[in-house]
Amino acid sequence: MNKKVTLGLTLSLIAIASAVTFILTSFFSLESFNKKVVDVNEKAAKYEKLESLDTFVRQNYYSDINEENLNYGILKGYVNGLSDKYSKYLTADEYQEELADESGKAVGLGITVEKDESGYIAITDILDNSPLNGSDVKVGDIIVAIDSKDVLTEGFEESVDSMRGIEGTDITITVRRDGKDSNYTFKRASMEVISVTGDMLDNYIGYIKISAFKKNTPEQFNTQLEKLVANGAKAIIFDVRDNDGGLVSSVEDCLDPLLPEGVVAVAEYDANKTETLVYSDATELNLPMTVIVNGKTASYAELFAAALRDFGKAKLVGEQTFGNGVLQNTTEFDDGSAVVLTVAKYKTVNSECYDGIGLTPDYIAEVSKENPKADAQLNKAIEAIKEQMKN
Fold first, then answer.
1. How confident is the model at residue 3 (pLDDT cuts 50, 70, 90)?
2. For residues 338 and 87, what is the distance between their CA atoms, to the nearest angstrom?
3. What sign does the dihedral 301-306-312-316 (CA atoms) show?
């Protein structure tokens, strides 16, 4: 039997529904508003505290304040406050230095150095295209000061870093030889960095050492790989020990000729957002492979090793890797400065993220303390790949 609904009842139901909708909308709007108010209040409190600190310092600090350094310090401090060791704020000069480094071109003096027993900087090699060529400076000389700053006072690592900079800028080094100090001024020069080397070992085992993944690394990598394959390599050992990563685009280009077609690795921004990070085309090298790793193998060097293992292409030899599996994006500001910010985790499509854990080798091999010059890890890699070649 059909039931009739009166006009009054209909209007009442509409009113109730509207009231409920209003209450729910008001509740969520109020919750959102309250959250925004809390955020605004928190930000206001932070700025007020910073302003109070700034006022106090300006009233009581004993010397002049370098405003530019102060501003940079505030910005660096903000990013440091994230407690993320991979995020950082870069000044315009620092950002240009980082871009130069990523490009595969080193800007500096074109020398290889080590820490002398005195704590100063000993020159162990001078590259062919070094600005020092043609000067009196030679291998074995000791650098005791850079731009009048004593190396012992500034620190060895800090002093070595200070030799890098912007191409064409002047740098003065104080060189000590036979107890006598002499000053030399040079212009920093840009030189291509060789990040990939190759060699043919016994039994036609190819060996490729990758020290970093820079912009020019894929070109060097493909040159070495093609040369070894053309010369009859029956297996390949990749060595990424002490490689702390670099550019993911370079890793992708190096993995591309080795892996089958498809998605290799993804970046996970949050539960709802995943993006392809590394993709390989149909070209694939079908040779036995081994990757040597150690505790300083990090970031995209770990991804390189993980991808080859996860796709059944290679075994890992060496030591537990560093464990950096997070992705950083770099954003440049109008003044040329930039922020490098961690935005996601990444992993191969066949395994979990190794961040904070690292990769465990299939064959553990440690550096011999008794005979460190004997490369036990390379020897183990050769042994492991010979087993693969038999199978």
1. very low
2. 11
3. positive
DSSP symbols for 64-131: ---HHHHHHHHHHHHHHTT--TT-EEE-HHHHHHHHHHHTTEEEE--EEEEE-TTSSEEEEEE-TT-T
Nearest to 355 by CA among 327, 375, 331: 327
Q: Do 155 and 142 form a contact (C-beta atoms < 8 A)?
A: no
* Predicted local distance difference test score (pLDDT) of residue 1: 42
Domains, the chain, in order of start with CATH, read 107-192 (2.30.42.10), 196-390 (3.90.226.10)
Does pTM top 0.85 for this prediction? no
CA atoms of 253 and 233, how far apart (whole Å)? 21
Q: What angle do CA 357, 267, 271 make, to 5 degrees?
A: 90
Burial of 198 (0-12, 13-18, 19+ CB in 10 A): buried
pLDDT band at 42 (very low <50, low <70, confident <90, very high): confident
- 3-class SS shares of the chain: helix, strand, coil, % to 5: 35, 30, 35
In angstroms, rounded to a whole number, what is the distance separating the alpha carbons of residues 307 and 276?
Answer: 14
pLDDT at 18 over 70: no
pLDDT digits (tens, 9 = 90+) for 240-250: 999 999 999 99
68 CB burial (10 A radius; 0-12, 13-18, 19+): exposed
To which H or E segment does residue 210 belong? strand 205-210
